[in-house]
Specification:
about 350 residues, alpha/beta, Rossmann fold, N-(1-d-carboxylethyl)-l-norvaline Dehydrogenase, domain 2, 2 domains, eight-stranded mixed sheet, globular, binds 3-hydroxybutanoyl-coenzyme A
Length: about 350
């Protein structure tokens, strides 16, 4: 398949890499030459890692399927376009208007937005019936989940096509049947983030992350994950979702954003990353699992009750999208919250 990925940042270059591994030809576009260069270097680094681990054979062959471009007109013959630019509604809207004027009206156009409404974004394209959400998780090459989101105008056949495309790259698609803010995983994750931020009144970053890592056995601490996915990304998302009635407020996030401490990518966020991943130690004092997870569990129940996804799908989505050993409903049962 000929695929265009718009934006070579953390998500964009990772998505391009995954599709290239599975034999697709990729146009990787970024407006900024430096970002494109950085994205390509990250792809090479990642492909070499995968080769070391015996997961792929030929780095050069895969890499040669990726064509870096800096003129959007070059994507004209794409069969699928995936947008992965920063989480700013106006920016995404203008990209979709431009893309839609270049590709055929039969081209499938997808957004990797983590939270913005698909149906609102779809208003910018000529053919909204062929517009959908394909939401990958960071790092796309390692995380098995992709949320496939149906906008109000997405044709059912297009929704099903999205599910098939995800299966072809050996990821697990989770159908998100209603276009709700934050979809499934981020809706739950935002509740974990807000609970963690609220707990900063009584506990330190390390104490909360110690609970996440050593008791709940998450692969990363909650604040470590905020750094990893980007303080800037999360802050921009929190503003966009707040405008649409979903409150994911965290004063500390705003403070870090304003200081330019964007997390892993700049070497500083909640943690200092200048020497690599933070070493989170097990602390004596920590909040209880209920304090961190109760709101997230209630959110998961809401998703099922509102027919967004089934209980099994939501449970699996939290395991695969966040690398948790247990799904959100497994925790709910253990904590007798449900
Ligand atoms: N490509 C190839 N290899 C990679 C890689 C990549 N992109 N990223 C990391 N690796 C490698 C590491 O280099 C390391 O290799 P090594 O064994 O040779 O040193 C190996 O993978 C394991 O990495 P680590 O030792 O650093 O740590 P982990 O075992 O914890 O695995 C992880 C890393 C898979 C990222 C794991 O920590 C994890 O699952 N974290 C949670 C991530 C998560 O929750 N993602 C979703 C966030 S929400 C989201 O993305 C939504 C968005 O919209 C904001």
């Amino acid at each position: 398949m000929k695929i265009a990925v718009i934006g070579a940042g953390v998500m964009g270059h990772g998505i391009a890499e995954v599709f290239a591994i599975y034999g697709n030809s990729i146009y990787l576009y970024d407006k900024y030459p430096e970002a494109l260069k950085k994205g390509l270097n990250s792809i090479l680094w990642s492909l070499q890692k995968l080769k070391e681990k015996g997961k792929i054979e030929d780095v050069d062959k895969i890499y040669s399927r990726i064509f870096p471009i800096n003129d959007l007109q070059d994507i004209e013959d794409s069969e699928l376009v995936i947008e992965a630019v920063p989480e700013n509604f106006d920016l995404k809207s203008s990209i979709f208007k431009e893309v839609s004027g270049i590709v055929s009206k039969d081209t499938l156009i997808a957004t990797n937005t983590s939270s913005l409404p698909i149906s609102e974004l779809a208003k910018n394209v000529v053919n909204p019936s062929r517009f959908l959400g394909l939401h990958f998780f960071n790092p796309p090459v390692l995380m098995k989940l992709v949320e496939v989101i149906k906008g109000n105008e997405t044709d059912t056949s297009v929704f099903n096509e999205g599910i098939e495309i995800v299966k072809r790259i050996e990821k697990i698609p989770i159908p998100v049947r209603k276009d709700v803010i934050g979809f499934v995983v981020n809706r739950i994750l935002f509740r974990v983030f807000t609970s963690a931020c609220r707990l900063l009144n009584k506990y330190t970053v390390e104490e909360i992350d110690s609970l996440a890592k050593y008791v709940l056995e998450f692969p990363m601490g909650v604040f470590e994950l905020l750094d990893y996915t980007g303080i800037d990304t999360n802050y921009l998302i929190s503003n966009e979702v707040k405008k649409r009635g979903f409150d994911f407020t965290c004063n500390k996030l705003k403070e870090l954003y304003e200081k330019g401490f964007y997390g892993t990518k700049v070497g500083k966020g909640f943690y200092d990353w200048s020497k690599g991943r933070p070493n989170i130690t097990k602390t004596e004092k920590m909040p209880s699992p209920e304090q961190l997870l109760k709101d997230a569990i209630n959110e998961a129940i809401w998703l099922v009750e509102n027919g967004v996804s089934t209980e099994d799908e939501v449970n699996l989505a939290t395991k695969l999208g966040l690398g948790w050993k247990k799904g959100i409903f497994d925790y709910a049962r253990e904590l007798s919250i449900k």
